[in-house]
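Repro:
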Amino acid sequence: MNAHFIPVRPEDRPHVRAVAVLVHRYGVYAVILAAVNLAFRRRRYRWRFDADLSDHIRRDVGLEPLSRGRAYWEL
């Protein structure tokens, strides 16, 4: 039904145009080097689990805190 909206030529596809613009602006070598660096870089984030949340955040979200906080007379 919407097949007439799909670009047929490769140069009409948005990702091909974006790469062509990058190559035109920065050069082939820089684009290939950036793609290789992107493919082999380490992730900058670590997986978070529900136990990683602080008790303040857990209370704000509506979960029970994992540890009981100290009472004011224990300080």
